[in-house]
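Protein Record: Sequence and Backbone Structure Tokens
======================================================

Structure line: whole-number tokens from a learned vocabulary of local backbone shapes, matched to residues.

Purpose: to set a sequence beside its fold so the mapping can be learned.

___
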Amino acid sequence: MRQIKLIILCCIILFISSGCEKPDTKELSTDQITTAPVESMDTSNAVEIPEKPYEPAAKIEDVKLIGYSTAIVCGIINDSLAEEQGFAIYSDAGELITESPGILFEEKYYAKIEGLEEGSEYIVRMYGTIDNEIVFSSDYSEIKTPAVIMDKDHVEAMLDEQIDYSLPAWQEEPDEISEEQMTIRRAQQLLCLIGQPYGKKDRFSLELQLNQLRLEYSFNSYGRFAFWDNVDGNPDEATNGYIIEILQTKEECTQDDFIFPFVPAPHALVEYNLYNENGGQMDAERYIYDHLKLDEEVYKSYMEYPFIYDTDEFKEKYPDLAEKKESGEYSGLQIEYTIAKNKVMFYQKNMEWMEETASPKDPTILIAEENQDFDAIVIVQAAVAYSYLYMELPKDRDLEELSIQCGYRTCDVQATLYSKKTNFAQVAKLSGAWHYDRQVQSYVPGFSNHQFGIALDLCNIFAFRGYNLYPYFQENAERYGFYNYYVESWHWVYLGE
């Protein structure tokens, strides 16, 4: 009994002491969301929720409505005992509608709730699993979805007036239009209706993708958190549906109702961000090092070919160099040559492991056409594409400046670049001095930020410094989370900060 009282007391203290500032996001007005003690609700007709012996210290922080059918909920559980945290949605009568597990991000939980009805009221509560039993918090939020004031047929009629897709008289109309093409057309009509560029009529273009990304991010994000699996820049029924719902429930709409302000979103490996005299980049060496220690065979390779000076393995392998470095007697570049050579040898001995480990950790999307040099599509992480395409680029830019020469590269492609399209095994035999010079311009496979899908090589790499876009990037790119690798003016890394 004393233990139970102690646990309850701890939870009360945690609940009282918990609190955080709300993210700077588009929030619901106070008449749409309120909080109150459960006891103040009329639950005479409610389905009885069995009392639990323990209640997690939790709080619903906010709810963001998307149209009327979907809500993104954010909450906090300050309880180390609670597992599998999530959100439960009830009707205003107390009937459980659905449960959704939460996704932990920066000490808060997020979930996307779908299937809500227009003009309805709901209750959101957080839950946690304790000792294999689901328990609910007493704190809750009420959601009131907006009512439809314009029927869908009227919206559809407005859309049909936006763009004329009929063909010239001399051109034969197709017997049937594919579902994919119909979705593209509807997306273009919706963009036209809300005053956004839609690109070339009846085609999927970069301009269409740009604005589609903006919409998808707005409908799938809360502050710095985003459901990246739903953000790919391709027109889809879900995004079209959200726009239609907003049009149905508002007397007057502005672009702010559809496209929310830009917020740099962190990539999965943000803890490895590195800023130094070379600019900004993700510390791939340190990431590889942290993960190789988890594999016994790979770790043995590192002990043979250590590539980070300030690790015990390097100092044990090369005690004379370490001693000279520590005593201040070191001169020349022998350590640098050794590290450069060891990176190559480590990769050569662990190619399959490196291909798997040095890879994008977040969802990726296609944002450009085929790379002519390597016959491969240009892919980057969704956050990278969103941030790049979201930039308010200068109006006088040359269209050529927008082209992206390279995003994600496999280790195999990186090896081809590093070896200057010759045999990598032969290049690996060259001296440490050669590799040191080479690594100024090209990274060893697995150590390049391109392998993680967070780096972009922009337009004509050798002429980028002379384009109008270069000074704009120098001045503004960091606001969008991009940092330059100073040796290469065209190489920009997305760090999300």
